[in-house]
Each structure stands twice: as structure tokens, then as C-alpha cells.
Amino acid sequence: KFMMVCLLAVAHQLDVALGVDYIMLAATYGFIANESLSIVENAGLMGIVKSDVIVNAIEVLKGKSQKIE
């Protein structure tokens, strides 16, 4: 989690250096999406979430991340 904050600080510095305002925003949205997916996945493992749509979305995203590795 500390590294996320460090990366957001670097993204902010890039925004300032380049004179733009979307690098930190994109990094923030990426971290929010990643953490949201993790929360939903853990809820599914605990049996809280049983929606087929959510389960399929998680499987698709896992498949894409495994292809990258």
C-alpha cells in the first residue's frame, strides 16, 4: 500500500513536470479498479457474492493477467 502512495506521488510529479492533469488521475483509477476487483474476488471466496456476471468478469480479467505474465 505504501508503494501505491509512492507511485501516486511520482504520477503527480509527472503531471506537474509535463503540465498535464491526467497521469495521476489514471493511476488513481487503476488502483481503485484493482482494489475493487480484489474486494469482490475475496467476497466471492467467502460466499457473499454469487452473481454470474461478476464471477465471469473476474475469470476474464484473471485470464488476461495470466497471459501478460
Automatic annotation (TrEMBL):
The species this protein belongs to is Enterocloster bolteae
**Protein's name in the database:** Holin
Q: Keywords for this entry?
A: Membrane, Transmembrane, Transmembrane helix
Q: Where in the cell is it found?
A: Membrane
Q: InterPro entries per the record? A: Phage_holin_4_1
Q: GO CC annotations? A: membrane
Lineage of the native species? Answer: Bacteria, Bacillati, Bacillota, Clostridia, Lachnospirales
Q: Which domain of life is it from?
A: Bacteria
Topology in membrane: Multi-pass membrane protein
- Presence of keyword Transmembrane helix: yes
